[in-house]
Amino acid sequence: MSEARDSMAPSGFAADQTHVQTIGPLLRQLHDAGFDASALAAVRRAYDMAAELWSVNFQSSGRSFLCHAVGTAGLVARHGGSPPAILAAVLHAAYNTSGFGVRIRGATRKRRRRVRDVIGVEAEALVFRFYELGNEFGTRWDGILAGGGASGLSAEDRAVLLIRICNDIDDVTDRVFSSSERQKRIDDFCHASVALAEALERPDLAELLREAYAECASAGFLSEEIQESHPSGYIVVPPAFAKRLVPGVLEVAHRLWTKGRLRP
């Protein structure tokens, strides 16, 4: 991968996202691409679940994780992803994050059933495979090519790798705001995804990722003081939300204990 690293040179990629980041523009993009009302409704249901999972999750730049999920889906749609792949892209991190209410990641049967009920069997299988490949290969997903290149990959794995590549194109814009540990993971993902795109005969995606990385990897005007210090590079629960949440829970408990009802 040293060649991929060395060949990353800027060629006009805008530092800010040049693809959709919110649900309205995503639905408009899909409508203009020919998606019917039922397909758009399915995407909206996926978005509603994503909002439930990640309403208080933010990238290291302060960008909502929900924007990242939508951005990934928009890129998958723009670059030829199937309807199940687009749905899966919206919820691609469902099993990789702790959005289900406890700080334990994973794909339990209950969680898989919940996701399956929202986006269907085929799309949920892609979300689950995304989770499996992350566990198997960590930050270097190009390891999947070791068994004989892209020729032996299933259609499912190809769809998941497209989501992975699009994820990294969107994710790299937050790199400069991240802790050094998080930056290293983004670097690994990006360089591995360049190799994946080339193996999948998608030079357009490989070049787009090179451009995104070259322009977004660093910014000399930003000091270390503004970087998110948490090793994960994520802001999981903003302090303002925590200040509202804890007193709220205590208030509910007090009402139930003293009055036996929620109303004041």
What features would you describe in this structure?
- The chain is mostly helical and 264 residues long.
- The protein folds into 2 domains: 2-233, Hypothetical protein af1432, CATH 1.10.3210; 239-264, no CATH class.
- Helices cover 59% and strands 0% of the residues.
- α5 crosses α7.
- The longest helix has 21 residues, at 239-259.
- The N and C termini lie far apart (63 Å).
- 36% of the residues are buried.
Domain module count: 2
Helix content: 55-70%
Number of helical regions:
11
- Give unreliable regions as ranges: 1-15
Query: What is the global morphology?
Result: globular
> Which structural class best describes the helix and strand composition?
mainly alpha
H/E element sequence: HHHHHHHHHHH
Please identify which CATH superfamily of the largest domain we are dealing with: Hypothetical protein af1432
CATH 2nd-level architecture of the largest domain = Orthogonal Bundle
Using the coordinates above, name the CATH class of the largest domain: Mainly Alpha
How far apart the termini lie comes to: 63 Å
Mean pLDDT value: 84
Rg (CA only): 20 Å
Based on DSSP secondary structure assignment, what is the total number of beta strands?
0
The major pleated sheet works out as: none
